[in-house]
Design brief:
This protein is α/β, with parallel strands linked by helices. Helices cover 31% and strands 14% of the residues. It is built from 11 helices and 15 strands. It is elongated and about 70 Å long. The chain starts with 6 loop residues before the first helix and ends with a helix. The chain binds SN-glycerol-3-phosphate and magnesium ion.
Length: 375
Amino acid sequence: HHPLIPHRAFQTFPATPPKTPADFAFAFDIDGVLLRSSTPIPGAHDALTFLQKQRIPFILLTNGGGKSETERVREVSEKLDVELDVSMFVQSHTPFAGMKQYHDKTVLVVGGDGDNCQRVAEEHYGFENVVTPGDIVCAYPDVWPFAKVFLDYYKGFAKPLPKPINPASPADGLKIDAIFVYNDPRDWGLDATIILDLLLSAQGRLGTLSPKNGDEALPNRGYQQDAQPSLYYSNPDLWWASSYHLPRLGQGGFRDAFAGLWSSVTKGAELTKTVIGKPHQPTYEFAEEKLRAHRKQLFGQVGLNDPLRRVYMVGDNPESDIRGANGYKSPHGSEWKSVLVKTGVYQESTKPSCEPTVIVEDVAEAVRWAVEDGR
Ligand code: G3P
Ligand code: MG
């Protein structure tokens, strides 16, 4: 029992959980709220267990990733000693599964340990031809001269590249139609080099150069110029709360570093990209659909319209959790309130870069405050 959740909270709730769903629910961020890397944050177990006992639904909504939802939710469930499953779990790249227009195309997947993200894309999301920068550097070691020291690591998981149509001319080499950054790149040098090569290439063909030098505003030069490969980022976080006592650079750090390279290399050409993840609207819409489906699973059909009216987003990062909840426009008309905890990126007694509904010590107090607020 956590001191911050007074016995009163147990006494004031009906002994037998309600049959109909409460009109409110929670969305919990993971890093900095429930865990610091793999260490549970005090009170996290009690907070989630309390809600489960009271049948108050919640989802986990993280900008993290790098593994399948099944694998990640099992890990988090074990660390927190709380029953969790994929029906209540949204990671940074989960929405990529729905991008069926690329499932049969050849895509580059960047980030994460080894080929974990490649396997997520192929085995869980239905992508058929997935290539990693590791596959490319093993096929063409000179593509990034400084990767030689890491080659043993890459050889541990690299796969042969899809066969080029006509290896004779580089223009018929490997063609990448889209680039997905799933998780934090481990080797910013190699990953940035490969992404840069592909965005500067003719029609996404590795080893070629488009005369446009990346500037889409320039006219096509006499041959059919497919659009450059599309670039998708899954997580905007510049900082995140790991086991180190100071926030660490997240995928947003890599994105900003790449933007600097792009600007220098193309002399300021616009970089066309799509960024999902908190604080962006599409990720919150995706999360609300997941939450509503989870509530239906818990309570059976809750009639045509679920009485869900309020969602408490509990997070540690003002720029992702708080800004996202504050700015989210629910298509169902639910109101999202933002609860900022002091156990992650946000540093106590500083002014948060985005004002939350309330600032509390930690996730246990967040639940207590919200349960009172919801009365
Ligand atoms: O890579 C994970 C980091 O960006 C933050 O994750 O759980 O705090 O959204 P989370
Ligand atoms: Mg966080």
